[in-house]
Amino acid sequence: MNSDKYYKLSNQPLIFVLAEFRFTEIMSMANYVSKIQETLRHSYPFLEEQHTQEVNITNEGLEINQSPQWALIGKNKLDAIVLDSKRLVFVTSDYQRFEDFQAKCEEVLKVLIEFAKPTLLTRVGLRYADLIISKSDNMDVCEYVQSSIFGNSFLNEIGNVAIQTNETTVETNEGVMTARSMHGKSNLSTWPDIVNLPIKLASQNEVSERIILDFDHVWQSNTENPISKTIEEALDFDINLVLEKLAKMHKLNRQAFWDSTTKQAKEIWK
Known about the structure:
The protein is an alpha+beta fold. 21% of the residues lie in helices and 36% in strands. The protein has helices at 30-40, 98-115, 239-260, 263-269, and strands at 14-23, 46-58, 61-73, 79-83, 87-92, 120-132, 163-172, 175-186, 208-220, 235-236. Strands 1, 2, 3, 4, 5, 6, 7, 8, 9 and 10 form a ten-stranded antiparallel sheet that branches. β2 and β3 form a beta hairpin. α1 (30-40) packs across α2 (98-115) and α2 packs antiparallel against α3.
């Protein structure tokens, strides 16, 4: 598909973009955090140590384990890196073009490789989240997206639909993409599972009619490839391979957003 079709949207409805890179566990990750932070501190001067909870089911019942993670946050608090023993996440609310985003991912991944030396790549995820609120008194928010996203509800005869959600999972050449949408009056700016991101978001907290779009694309080892029907093996944690996967996933995420929104909307966002 011709990339010229995808022109820059200066007023895009994007809330954040997140890339996740998982690897086989590095139990000594805490030993490398200071070196990673020292190398990146001019771009990411704020360091927060956090703890996550992991729930495991054992023969004795539920087992809850806490593990440390570290957030390295940019000076404008629009970019951040989240790191733990099994993954690195880069998230931004200051997304301009994919090439810039990919370059930032490359920078932090090179530092991770230099000090922690992850062995195998087990997962790559790329997620785009959009908040659509009408910018024109003459255009309903539903006119910003294709009508196929929200079908007529059979409950309309009972009452007015307050919130309508839709979730579709598709197999792609690069893995699995889950496309989610939510329409209605609310004060939500992102899909409800997003909590405590360490960056500033351009949230709209007053209740209004809005549409949330969320495209979450994942490649993961130990799953069946949707095309070849073979089991995906964990791969060597090679920077070029990782960035190539990210770029291929981005093309499909971009197409999903472009095809789900209308020409009129893109003219307003242009």
